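[step 3/7] inverse_fold.run input=structure_tokens len=173
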């Protein structure tokens, strides 16, 4: 009688293990597609907000910024070509920096600056790509990804490009 009562225990234990493994796999996949979480040893994007009074602060994911300027800094583990995209609500995709050569190195300040204008969320995407990728492909892929995210740049995932990618977003107010 005792052996019959617990016959279901191995099946229950197996189902729990299988469910746990599936949850870990789904979480890992979502983490790999969320480019706002830098990969260890990958491209890093730092954003600095300069207020109109000259004060400067590091802008982190989800922070808000009003009138002022943005400065960008990247750490690239290998030399390559770097582009920066600014993606706003609806279908606003802007190429801030065309694919331009960048050397390997940490904390490289980019010469480009960006004025903070308007309202709403804006996603900044740094892409390091090989020679086969064209600037036009970047904006087309970003526009498609933005449409898939329902026009909300905060919900975007990795662009379908053969590039190393890292992103962040902030709220313009």
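[step 3/7] decode complete -> sequence:
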């Amino acid at each position: 009688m005792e052996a019959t009562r617990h016959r279901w225990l191995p099946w229950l234990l197996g189902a729990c293990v299988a469910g746990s493994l599936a949850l870990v796999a789904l979480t890992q996949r979502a983490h790999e597609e969320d480019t706002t979480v830098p990969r260890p040893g990958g491209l890093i994007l730092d954003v600095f907000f300069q207020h109109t009074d000259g004060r400067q602060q590091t802008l982190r994911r989800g922070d808000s910024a009003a009138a002022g300027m943005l400065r960008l800094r990247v750490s690239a583990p290998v030399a390559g070509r770097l582009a920066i995209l600014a993606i706003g609500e609806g279908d606003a995709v802007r190429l801030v920096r065309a694919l331009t050569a960048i050397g390997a190195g940490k904390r490289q300040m980019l010469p480009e600056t960006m004025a903070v204008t308007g309202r709403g969320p804006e996603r900044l995407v740094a892409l390091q790509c090989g020679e086969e990728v064209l600037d036009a492909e970047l904006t087309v892929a970003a526009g498609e990804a933005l449409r898939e995210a329902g026009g909300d740049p905060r919900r975007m995932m990795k662009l379908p490009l053969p590039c190393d990618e890292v992103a962040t977003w902030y709220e313009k107010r």
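[step 4/7] annotate
The helical segments are 2-5, 9-33, 135-148.
The CA atoms of residues 25 and 83 lie 31 Å apart.
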